[in-house]
Amino acid sequence: MNLAEYLPPDRVLLLKGRTKADALAELADVLGEAGLGVGREELREAIWKREGIMSTGIGQGLAVPHVRMPGVKTAAVAVGISPEGIADYESLDNQPVHLIVMIVAPEDEHETYLRLLAEIMQAVKDPELRRRIIQAPDTQTAHSLLVKER
Amino acid sequence: MSELALALPRPSHLPILLVVGTAVVFGTIGARLFQRLGIPQVVAYICLGLLVGPMALGLIGPRTIRQLQPFSFFALGVIGFMIGGELRLELLRKYGKTFLAILLSEGLGAFVLVGTLVTSTCWLLTGDARLSLALGTVLGAISSATAPAATVDVLWEYKTRGILTTTVFAIVAMDDGLSLLLYALAASAAGVLLGTAGGGGWLLLMGHVAYELAGAVLLGAAAGMAVNVALRHPCDHQKALPFMIGSLALLIGLARMLDVDLILATMSFGAVLVNLAPRRSRAAFEVMEDVAPPIYVLFFVMVGARLHIAGMAGWMWALAGSYLIGRTAGKMLGAYLGARWSGAAQSVRKYLGLCLFSQAGVAIGLSILAADRFPGDMGLAIMMIVTATTFVVQIIGPPCVKLAVKRAGEVGLKVTERDLMESYTVGQMVDSSIPAINFKSPLAEVVRIVGQTDATSYPVVSETGELMGVITLEGLRRSFMDEELTKVLVAYDIMESPPDAVTEDVPLAEGMSKMHEQHLTYLPVVSAKDGRLIGLLDERTVKRRLSEEVIRRQRLAAAQVGPEAQHEPATQPAGPPKS
């Protein structure tokens, strides 16, 4: 699976918000305007509902909010970088989150969804790589680091 | 009823297809109604025939009955063929002496008692000893026949299996031959009594009977051997069906042309086939089973339509009464004594007699021969008496068979998984022991729950117990693609959308059909009352339970036969499903 197919450069952004709600809203807005078949409000609601079940902050500064929704035409990824950190994300290790990778997929594309999640985990597994992505000078560089062939 | 018939406009004849369609459609509907009342379906068919025949509405006349005769022959042929399929050599070796003893006993029992009662009654009415003895002898011989069609239809309808069922099949299959022999002797004797016998009459008759019976057996056996060779070449259901229908039709046609006994010929065909190729021939019996039901319906409707006893004189009714009493008592007593002397099972001794009341084709055929042989009042009396008593026994016979097999505990023991599928509901097969998984459960919890059972699918429910999705083992496997990922996944993430649920009152066959249409191996089952999740209909569980139930019933049937007969034949045709 090629992550680049699901994550174009313009979906890597430097987050303005300093709270979980603001950060997730920013990423949801980007995906909402990507022509996926669902609007930003719907996406925000679905992501927030999923967060309500269990936080997607897996620790070590990383969070992977994800959702499958009816109406979504194709799977898509957006990445938010917060060098200052999102302190209220409620991660497993209670540490601030610096890298948020949001995934949206069609409701019935079960396998694609899980494969994409697994691919992303593989992409950001390395702590050193994560550090370089978070400290990248621009979003283009961050994107290149994320999607490079391994 | 006859006034009603006169009041209705009657076309000179109804188109044949209209008759066929009417008979099959309304016969099937009538059968369903009768089944709800616990009355065998064959009674419904015969009653419909009585209704549309000359005795009531007169919609079907003798011309139409003649035109439909080929269907009747074909139906008799199928019945003979299916009976033959029950006659396995190992059964005949095991029970052959018992069958023979019972056959002779019940056949001769009816012959003696009917002969005695009819002779006595006729003598009281006429004072003519020779005439009375001649009439009694001929009617006694005719009374020994038992019609297989109505009897086996009840056995198939109620899916019976056991020693009583096996004995009934054997007896009704063979007593046609006995009655033909007895008739030959009786007709000859009556001819001598009345002074109408020719010099070569007796020998000619016996010769003809021997030709009819032996010729039928040889013809059927030859057909069985020929088809056995053909069955060595594998072919699918599409090709097997026309081949079997064609083979049977060919055999029936030849039997008619050569003037040999049709039922014996087709029975011999079935018996040879099932013994030469028990496994290969299974498909042959199954395809006949699939095509036979509408033909049976039409056949029995025609049986009813043929019964016409209007205008019978009072003295004929008296003789008919003697015949009926003598035949009933003779069959029951003869069957009991024969079973007892030969050491047959208790259920056979007690209930076989009840299964031997039906009388139709052979008896009516012999009565027509007798009417031809003894013209005048005697011939007319024979025909009318046999027709009238056929009317009665065709109505009471099937319910008596049902009573017998029910009391013997043999009902429902001969089922296939397909039969059970049609009789169960989803609620009887739903697996409510499969634990439901809360949608918020972390993956570790999901794995723990899955590890505790051997189910392959698990319902995912909300806090209020509402079905939200289903987790399958395949879906769970996919979630282990990355170890880190397992920390953030919950049941909600890995569940699949639930398919449309079914309620517990839906027939199982329908539920399984819906499952397969969606290419699934499970289906959620919810309560018809409140939509609450009851459990999952799991394909693997359904198959296992059906298989277990079939084996349980087979063992039950085998246990009734006794320890020495625990070995069940490898295959047995199941007979037609319920119409």
Task: Give the arrangement of secondary structure elements.
The complex is a heterodimer of chains A (150) and B (579).
Chain A (H helix, E strand, L loop, with lengths): L11 E3 L5 H13 L7 H14 L3 E3 L2 E2 L2 E4 L6 E11 L10 E10 L3 H14 L3 H8 L4 H9 L3
Parallel strand pairs in A: 1-5, 3-6, 4-6
Antiparallel strand pairs in A: 2-3, 5-6
Helix pairs in contact in A: 1-2, 4-5
Chain B lengths: L1 H6 L8 H21 L4 H12 L9 H6 L1 H16 L4 H38 L2 H15 L4 H10 L5 H32 L6 H31 L5 H22 L3 H15 L4 H26 L7 H28 L4 H6 L9 H13 L3 H31 L9 H7 L2 H4 L7 E2 L4 H9 L5 E5 L5 E6 H6 L12 H4 L7 E2 L4 H10 L4 E5 L6 E6 H23 L18
Parallel strand pairs in B: 1-2, 4-5
Antiparallel strand pairs in B: 2-3, 5-6
Helix pairs in contact in B: 2-3, 2-13, 3-13, 3-17, 5-12, 5-13, 6-7, 6-9, 6-14, 7-9, 7-16, 8-9, 8-17, 9-10, 9-16, 10-11, 10-12, 11-13, 14-17, 16-17
What keywords describe this structure?
heterodimer; A: 150 residues; six-stranded mixed sheet; B: 579 residues; mainly alpha; three-stranded mixed sheet; elongated
Explained architecture:
The complex is a heterodimer of chains A (about 150) and B (about 575). With about 150 residues, chain A is α/β, with parallel strands linked by helices. In chain A, helix 4 packs antiparallel against helix 5. Chain A has five helices and six strands; from the N terminus they run E-H-H-E-E-E-E-E-H-H-H. Chain A has helices at about 20-30, 40-55, 110-125, 125-135, 140-145, and strands at about 10-15, 55-60, 60-65, 65-70, 75-85, 95-105. Helices cover about 40% and strands about 20% of the residues of chain A. Chain B is mostly helical and about 575 residues long. In chain B, the strands form two sheets. Chain B has a three-stranded mixed sheet with strand order 1-2-3. Chain B has a three-stranded mixed sheet with strand order 4-5-6. In chain B, a hairpin with a 5-residue loop joins strand 2 (about 455-460) and strand 3 (about 465-470). The radius of gyration of chain B is 29 Å and the shape is elongated. The two termini of chain B are about 30 Å apart. Residues about 565-579 of chain B have low confidence and may be disordered.
